[in-house]
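We emphasize that the prediction below concerns an isolated chain of 73 residues; any contacts that depend on oligomerization or on bound cofactors are therefore not represented. The input was used exactly as deposited, without trimming of termini.
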Amino acid sequence: MPMEIMVALIGLAGSGIGTFAGIVASSKLTNYRIGQLEKKVDKHNTVIERTFRLEEQMKVANHRIADLEEKGD
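Result of the prediction step, given as a token string:
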């Protein structure tokens, strides 16, 4: 086999391995970042749910206060 063909095949193999390694590394980074974003979204959703519950409790408390004020008058 001529030397030029061997060099070309070695270069092709090196390029293929490098490309594959780059794709794997990029995929891992993307998956990690998506995981981090999911955690942030879950935290945000928890805050929204707690805020909604507090707003409902405030409405009930304000209604009770209004009822007590009416009884006092």
